[in-house]
Structures are given as C-alpha cells and as structure tokens.
Write a structure and sequence with these properties.
The complex is a heterodimer of chains A (287) and B (185). Chain A has 287 residues and is α/β, with parallel strands linked by helices. Chain A has eleven helices and eleven strands. Chain A has one domain: UDP-N-acetylmuramoyl-L-alanine:D-glutamate ligase. In chain A, strand 7, helix 4 and strand 8 form a beta-alpha-beta unit. The mean pLDDT of chain A is 95. Chain B has two domains: 90 residues, Alpha-Beta Plaits, CATH 3.30.70; 81 residues, no CATH class. Classes of the chains: A alpha/beta (287), B alpha+beta (185). Chains A and B meet through helix 3, helix 4 and helix 5 of A and strand 6, strand 7, strand 8, helix 4 and helix 6 of B.
C-alpha cells in the first residue's frame, strides 16, 4: 500500500486517516472533501491518477489541517509515534509538515521498528527536517527543486531560507551540488532533482536526466513538484525500481504539463487531469 | 527621554558575524511571533535584525531577532506591553545564520515571477493579479496560496501578516520585491 503523510490548509480538518480517493477536483478521505490545488492534496491527486493507469488506486492518507503553526503536523507526529503504523505499507511518503527535528527523529525510530521497512520518500517540510536532523541517508528518495538542492548542499543551512548565497548561485551545476550534498551526508539514497532539466542521481553520480518536453511556464505553477512526487511514489508502489520510477515520473509530469498548454497562470488541477493520458503514453513508449 | 530616543536609534548595522559582542537574540515560539515583534520594534525605531538561530536552539523552522543587549529591558517592556512574549533572550556567542537576501526575477512576457529563497510569486503584469505561488515546504504555503492567488497585489493579504513559517517569511520578501518591481513597470 502507498501511504501519504501531510497536511491541508483547513483547520477544521482534524487528524484523519483512511483510504483516499480523487473525485472531481477534490480528494476525499473519511467523508472529508479537500480541494486539490497544491500541497499534499495535489500529491495525492497525482498519485491517484497514476495508479488508475495500473487499475489499482489504493492510497492511505494521514492528514490533518495546518496553516503553519504546526497544530495539524503535531497531531500527525503524535499519532505516528504513539499509535501502530499499518503493517502493509510498502511505500511511505512524507510531505507538507512543519519541520521539527525532534518529532522527525522519533518517527524515524518508529519506522526502524517496523517489521518490513517501507520505501521512504520525503519532500517539502519533512525533507527539510530529515536533512537538518542528519538522518537524510535513512531515506530512499528526496525530490528537491533547484533551490532545495542548494539547501541540501549547504551543510550549515537548517532551512532553505538560510542557504548561503555562494551555493544558491544559479551558476552552480546540479551535479556539483548533488555531490556536495552526498559528501556531507545530506541526501537520500536517490535524488530526483526537478527543474528545467530533471536529474536522477545517487551517490555514484548521474543516473539519467529528462529535459523534454519542455514548458518554461511550469516553473511558475504551484504544485508541479507535488505532482512529480506523487507520480514517482505511485510508480514505486507498483514495483518499479526507484531510478526507473524517477525517470518515468519526470517524463510523465513533463508531458502532462505540456499537454495542458500551460501559461504561468495555469493551475495544478489542469495538469493533474492530464496525468493518466501522459502516463499511458510514456509507459507505452518505455524508457 | 531624549537619551532613550537616541539609544533606540543607535545604529548597529555594519556589525558582521565576527563582531556580535554585546548583542542578544530574542527567541519566540513561532515564526509568526517573530514577524509581529519585528514589525513592532521597527515601527518604534529599534535597529534590530532578523537572523537564524544558533545550532543549539534550532528546531527546524526558526527565526530570531538580534538586538543590542544593553536595550534588553526596554525592548522586553515594549514587547510585553503588546502581548508578544519571547520564550527567552540569550546573548549571541557565535555567528548567526543570515537569511537569504538574493532575489531572482524572471520575465515571462505577460507575467513576472520573483523568487526569494525557495518561494516563487508570479503575477500577471497587466492586472498585477497573483496567478501562482510555488515552492516551499512548510504547511502555511498552501494556506497562503489559497488566500492570495486570484487577488491583485493591493487586494492580497501580506504574507508577513498571515504567514507563520520561514517559507511564509520568504514569500513575504518575494511579495515586497514584487511590489518594488511593479512600481517600475
């Protein structure tokens, strides 16, 4: 089973667990309907759309409302540490959560106790906490964008907001920053770096890259990183190896974006709607 | 009173990470309290600076306010009078992290995007309407996007007023830079 842990910007959403579906422009979990615009609902929407191509859409959500003060995140953290994790999770994704090193470490200890350790994926706030805790190597995949990669590469930065200018500089090449992140133990086993060119790398270097189709406007559209993380998580859940899943996901995300004829004003839901067709095309063509 | 006023406006700019003797930091529970305190202290003329905390007190999403230690009582009195209570104050004993101060501006023709740290804000030039917010990873980013996208820069709430995290703070910087950029269009 694929499990996604994250938050939604709705304080009326208490800690909610259960199977998540996508219905129109909303994800639905335990009777609660949450609009898909960006963040964790966008990740779940993209994962759901990808899994429909494989005829299986089982996703479990661990969600709570949080608008930045960390209330919902702490409810989720408390649940994961003190309640039993579902035993049949094969792929576990952590997403928009308030970065908190102490809670992060307690959750990681809890996961280490699981009989069958799931594939661990982190993006957004939980990736920040994973890096800051010094435990990045415990993860199987991070999905940073260029700015977040610079943060991973800066061994002193506890948050992207503090990335030093000489590392953040756009002249720095992605492979160099990836190497720096690995040198300091601040990267997961694999990295999928999203940007004008998407890089799939590990500690040995570049595994593959994807640079087409290309739509410059994608950079401005909120949620395109969330959809990429959702797609790759879904593909890993189908049994695909991580490097292949990352390469395929990058192609699907780009094609879905391209097919939406995007402008900088395009909303992520328009791209999510294109994912099944793009996935079918890419899977048919093969890597 | 005059002396107090002069003290308040005594410049500390020009100090760098290696000369922080005599400085302290105010530590708050939430970044949103830092933002409120910064706004209040600046409006009263204090020359303070928002910085990153030292490693021993980092939790993952923090800002602190650097201030001249000699003014601790006056500053605390002002904050407490406004209901903004820091968790504690400590002297600066080592270099503090500096927030990102680089902006990247990208022109898409009809649209303009400003990036500050990990946050990007895009507007339609003709209407100055916010069309997208991207980047970031803290839970107030989707909330801020919900509150701001579709509104013009003048209609939109300011991220520094409603944000709670470092991502919200970075978006606030991008918002202010976008206002500057638009004033030159």
């Amino acid at each position: 089973m694929l499990a996604v842990v994250g938050t939604a910007p709705d304080l009326s959403l208490d800690l909610t667990l259960g199977r998540v579906t996508l219905e129109g422009g909303n994800i639905v979990i335990s009777g609660c309907s949450i609009p898909v615009n960006r963040g964790t609902p966008a990740l779940i929407g993209a994962a759901f759309q990808t899994l429909t191509v494989f005829g299986k859409t089982e996703i479990t959500g661990f969600l709570a409302g949080d608008t930045g003060l960390g209330q919902g995140s702490r409810k989720i953290y408390h649940h994961l540490v003190h309640e039993s994790l579902l035993p049949d999770i094969q792929t576990l994704v952590f997403h928009y959560l308030q970065p908190d090193v102490d809670w992060h470490n307690r959750i990681l200890f809890r996961i280490d106790d699981m009989e069958n350790r799931p594939v661990l994926i982190a993006d957004a706030g939980f990736m920040y906490a994973a890096k800051m805790s010094g435990q990045a190597r415990s993860y199987d995949l991070f999905t940073p964008d260029a700015g977040e990669l610079a943060f991973l590469a800066d061994e002193t930065a506890p948050h992207p907001f503090y990335t030093r200018g000489f590392i953040l500089h756009t002249d720095n090449k992605v492979p160099d920053l990836v190497q720096r992140a690995y040198d300091h133990g601040n990267a997961a086993r694999y990295l999928l770096v999203k940007g004008a060119r998407d890089y799939i790398m590990d500690g040995t270097g570049l595994l593959s890259f994807v640079d087409g189709p290309s739509a410059e406007a994608m950079e401005a559209i909120g949620g395109t990183g969330d959809t990429l993380t959702g797609i790759v998580s879904a593909l890993i859940q189908t049994g695909m190896k991580i490097p292949e899943a990352a390469h395929t996901a990058a192609r699907i995300n780009r094609l879905a974006g391209f097919n939406a004829a995007p402008t900088p004003a395009t909303q992520i839901l328009d791209i999510i709607a294109q994912i099944p067709k793009a996935a079918e095309t890419v899977l048919k063509e093969g890597n | 009173m005059l002396k107090f006023s002069l003290f308040k406006r005594k410049k500390i700019s020009g100090r760098d990470a290696g000369s922080e003797i005599g400085l302290g930091i105010l530590i708050f529970e939430h970044t949103s309290e830092v933002i409120q305190a910064e706004k209040l202290l600046r409006s009263e003329g204090w020359d303070i600076k928002v910085m990153g905390p030292p490693p021993e007190i980092q939790t993952g999403c923090d800002l602190v306010i650097r201030f001249p230690l000699i003014e601790q009582l006056n500053i605390l009195r002002l904050l407490e009078g406004s209901g903004i209570q820091p968790l504690r104050t400590v002297p600066v004993t080592g270099p503090l992290l500096k927030p990102v101060d680089l902006f990247q501006v990208k022109d898409f023709g009809d649209f303009l995007m400003v990036r500050a740290a990990n946050m990007k804000l895009t507007i339609e030039k003709k209407t100055q309407r916010i069309v997208n917010i991207s980047g970031g990873g803290c839970p107030d980013v989707p909330f801020l996007a919900y509150e701001m996208v579709g509104k013009t820069l003048s209609e939109s709430p300011r991220p520094l007023d409603i944000g709670h995290t470092l991502c919200g703070y970075a978006l606030g910087l991008a918002f202010e830079e976008m206002q500057k950029q638009c004033s030159q269009l």
